[in-house]
Amino acid sequence: MATVEQALDTEPIQYEVDGHVATIWLNRPHIRNAVNWELLNQMAERVEQAAADDDVRVVLFRGRGGTFCAGADLNMLSSTHLGTSKTSLELANLSARTYDRIHTMDKPTVAIIEGYAVAGGFELAISTDFAIIADEAQIGDFHIRRALFGGCGPIYRLPRIMGIRRAKELMLTGKLLSGKEAASAEWNLCNKSAPAAELDQCVADFVADLADKSPFCMKITKNTLNRGLDADTESLIVMEQMACNVVHNSRDAKEGVAAFLEKRDPVWTGT
To answer: Can you give the pTM of this predicted structure?
Structure first.
């Protein structure tokens, strides 16, 4: 059974655990889940909670009210609310650190995108390991349309996901892609798309393929892949050999081999 922590319906972040899957819900549907200080702070707390829970193997990010996230609350960005450059820098730092924590978490993270994922919502989506999007959804950087600049990863994450030319096209034009376009080989921005009515089943099938794997092997593999993007070939060879040695000597690896030979499902301990 799912357990849902939502003391008040007005809390900007809600947290749900179902089996080995945690869902972090953005809950400001009246303004398309626009991000403010409170939401960011609560998201950071829930990310750490999911990271620390050994029973959680996959972490999902999703928006209430049929939309993912329309970016920063523009009321917060006004001079009246944001105040000074110091305050602006503090906001940018909190956002960047929270999104980077999502990216570097040992567990696989998945953005489930409906409605709009633009500006800060777009940055959240590209901070996760995977993105599954409704065909009818819209996704794009969008900052340049308001003469703003995205400070949470598009410069260093987006080119690695889709290549520098496509990244420039999205960031310099403010272009929005449909879900189908975003998941196409042409754009390669999302892993899968599905009609809205089939999105939940698409998510369930995708997540099931992640949640039944060894948490220990998942951790090593994800971290090695992430670090490999910044390493030279010789360093990668050493890193890969070390990771292989660590994984192959784990209890989960021994269990995986034993389960195969005994023709049964493995029971992972995460060690």
So the answer is: 0.86
